[in-house]
TrEMBL record:
Any Pfam family: Cys_Met_Meta_PP
Modification N6-(pyridoxal phosphate)lysine occurs at: 207
Protein's name according to its UniProt entry: Aminotransferase class I/II-fold pyridoxal phosphate-dependent enzyme
Any one GO molecular function term: pyridoxal phosphate binding
Family: Belongs to the trans-sulfuration enzymes family.
CDD domains per the UniProt record, alphabetical: CGS_like (cd00614)
A GO cellular component entry from the record: cytoplasm
Length: 402
């Protein structure tokens, strides 16, 4: 039954266990520890000879339901929940790489992933090269005998560059490297990297998976022995454990994931088309636009273009800031994938961790603005953008007239 479920059904049903009291909604196992019938039972569980919960850092039934659901959706053997998206990213990097290993990752990554790879990993003797994954020959050229892993996001935070994941997976396989994709912007409903040959898929569940802006969480989907390494080295010993209550909130949020993604994508597409045609906007970054270099991967790699877009205005820094400050319905806040539309300035917010030269090399301009299209009626969002852009288009019309 499970493998035949459509994704829209799987977000509601996959990995559910029949609850002994018959409750439709799975209970929250809000307990730090679990009672053993006798010493032999406890010892057998610790030795891995008997299944069953021990202690929530080592596993929890509510968290396990979320993990089974995500594994099913991503097509992985299993999944491990973490306390944040960054705990998931660091679990993969610190759990699977050792001193002397070399990592190749994209030049543009979420800001804290960038600081983790560029500032923290070298402290542990892990070497890192950042390359633009649009140029796979450059990625190939960066491979050394000590290279172990490739890491990228697609679409990338914050400017939505898209990479050919099947080609990345093929390169990784050929060079016997582990490929890792952060699939946060897509969710498994829009993109399933494992079906393209990628080894490990991770998410910040804080975003679309939960979808309601009230939880910080992460998850890694992987196969075979990797799962055990992540549980043992990263979860048990480093300890960034997902709380059962937060796992339960994500399970609740995920029931509407398919419906929400549909509306996020529709709203983002409408906003992107409007902005692209506006005289005060010089560039819109959204894979759903034909002008986007990764547009051809829509339909094959990506089921839809997602709910995040970015733009550049025909304006200087102060004017760009004033535009953002004029928005009323878009809240000025980092994060994405919430019901509320959000706007933020990557150079000073999500990607402020970058050195200026590295940020420019990553393609993140000083005046880039990122939008997360929420679930509102798009007419209201358009009206908000229109009023905030109006002073800019008036000044450009004036300049044209002069
Ligand atoms: C943001 N991003 O606004 P958490 N991977 C990706 C992400 O976008 C993020 C993480 C991992 C944002 C958060 S910035 C202070 C706010 C692609 C987070 C990390 O640890 O759950 O926040 O996920 O772009």
């Amino acid at each position: 039954m499970a493998s035949k479920m459509h994704p829209e059904t799987a977000v509601i049903h996959a990995g559910r266990l029949r609850e002994p009291q018959g409750s439709l909604v799975s209970p929250i196992y809000q307990s730090a520890t679990f009672v053993f019938d006798d010493v032999q039972t406890g010892s057998a569980r610790f030795a891995g000879e008997q299944s069953g919960p021990i202690y929530t850092r080592l596993g929890n039934p509510t968290v396990a339901e979320f993990e089974r659901r995500m594994a099913h959706l991503e097509g992985a053997d299993g999944a491990v929940g973490f306390a944040s998206g960054m705990a998931a990213v660091s679990a993969v990097l610190l759990g699977l790489l050792s001193s002397g290993d070399h990592l190749i990752c994209n030049t543009c990554l979420y800001g804290c992933t960038h600081s983790l790879v560029s500032e923290q990993l070298p402290r542990f003797g892990i070497e890192v090269t950042q390359v633009d994954f649009a140029d796979l020959e450059a990625v190939r050229a960066a491979i050394r005998p000590s290279t172990k892993m490739l890491l990228l996001e697609s679409p990338v935070n914050p400017h939505l560059a898209v990479y050919d994941l099947a080609a990345v997976a093929a390169l990784a396989r050929e060079a016997q490297l582990v490929s890792v994709v952060d699939n946060t912007f897509m969710t498994p409903l829009l993109q399933r990297p494992k079906s393209l040959g990628i080894d490990i898929v991770l998410h910040s569940a804080t975003k679309y998976l939960n979808g309601h802006g009230d939880v910080i969480a992460g998850v890694v989907c992987a196969d075979g022995d990797t799962l055990e390494l992540l549980r043992h080295r990263s979860l048990k010993d480093i300890g960034g454990v997902l709380s059962p209550h937060d796992a339960w909130l994500i399970l609740r949020g995920m029931k509407t994931l398919a419906l929400r993604m549909e509306r996020h994508c529709l709203n983002a597409q409408t906003l992107a088309e409007f902005l692209e045609s506006h005289p005060a906007v010089t560039r819109v970054y959204y894979p759903g636009l034909e002008s986007h270099p990764g547009h051809h991967l829509l339909g094959s790699q990506m089921g839809a273009a997602g709910g995040v877009l970015a733009l550049e205005l025909d304006a200087d820094f102060e004017q760009a800031v004033a535009f953002v400050n004029r928005l009323k319905l878009f809240s000025i806040a980092v994060s994405l994938g919430d019901a509320e539309s959000l706007v933020q300035h990557p150079a000073s917010m999500t990607h402020a961790t970058y050195q200026v030269e590295d940020r420019h090399r990553a393609g993140i301009g000083d005046t880039l603005i990122r939008l997360s299209a929420g679930l509102e009626n798009v007419a209201d969002l358009l009206a908000d953008l229109r009023q905030a852009l109006a002073p800019l288009s008036q000044s450009s019309t004036l300049e044209e007239a002069l």
